């Protein structure tokens, strides 16, 4: 199994308890650089895998495949962690690695442990109080949207479908008892609650 573990923004006190426990229980830990290596060091040894910031996708794909080859051999027989700064599902090196793993090694199960992201770190350090809708962008085209407190789910889905969104995931009470995760708009209930989230994606599966 391969687990992407978010190590937070760089402050060692901001690792989650779950991240620390997963690091301690892993058979092997890889990281993409020195900062992540330092955060992991109090709990376990790690090995740096090179993920250079390049625009040449032919070279990048070769590097991704090489790293996936290394990880796959160990992830089939034990628990391998890839620890990285921030959160593994937001603008993350792990997202690219997971895609390559699923393409070449679909037999390797993947999972993630969330970490404190740059978004929430920014709000904390700048004393920014975000209590209404906001947009996060890296300058690329907007392909996904998250709706919090998604109480009237089918109404929301209809409105988003008109904007071109075609793949939907409903989640409720995440990491709590009675957690629900439902994929596909035809399976999503008509109503959610305060702890409901609706994820919409363009060009989805």
TrEMBL record:
Domain of life assignment: Archaea
First and last residue of the signal peptide: none
Pathway given in the UniProt record: Cofactor biosynthesis; adenosylcobalamin biosynthesis
Keywords on record: Cobalamin biosynthesis, Methyltransferase, S-adenosyl-L-methionine, Transferase
InterPro entries, sorted: 4pyrrol_Mease, 4pyrrol_Methylase_sf, 4pyrrole_Mease_sub1, 4pyrrole_Mease_sub2, CobI/CbiL, Uropor_MeTrfase_CS
Gene Ontology molecular function: precorrin-2 C20-methyltransferase activity
UniProt cross-references to PANTHER family, sorted A to Z: COBALT-PRECORRIN-2 C(20)-METHYLTRANSFERASE
Protein family per UniProt: Belongs to the precorrin methyltransferase family.
Protein name: Cobalt-factor II C20-methyltransferase
Organism: Methanohalophilus euhalobius
């Amino acid at each position: 199994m391969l687990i992407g573990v978010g190590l937070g923004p760089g402050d060692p006190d901001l690792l989650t308890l779950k991240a620390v426990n997963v690091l301690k229980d892993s058979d092997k830990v890889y990281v993409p650089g020195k900062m992540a290596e330092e955060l992991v060091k109090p709990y376990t040894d790690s090995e740096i895998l090179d993920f250079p910031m390049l625009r040449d996708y032919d070279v990048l794909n070769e590097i991704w495949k090489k790293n996936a080859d290394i990880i796959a051999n160990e992830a089939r027989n034990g628990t391998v962690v890839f620890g990285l700064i921030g959160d593994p599902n937001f603008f993350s090196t792990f997202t690219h690695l997971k895609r390559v793993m699923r393409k070449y090694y679909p037999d390797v199960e993947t999972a993630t442990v969330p970490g404190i992201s740059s978004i929430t770190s920014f709000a904390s350090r700048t004393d920014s109080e975000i209590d209404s809708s906001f947009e996060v962008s890296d300058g690329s085209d907007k392909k996904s949207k998250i709706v919090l407190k998604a109480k009237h789910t089918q109404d929301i889905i209809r409105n988003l479908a008109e904007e071109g969104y075609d793949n939907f995931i409903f989640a409720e009470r995440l990491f709590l008892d009675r957690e629900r995760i439902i994929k596909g708009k035809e399976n999503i209930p008509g109503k959610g609650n305060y702890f409901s989230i609706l994820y919409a994606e363009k060009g989805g599966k």
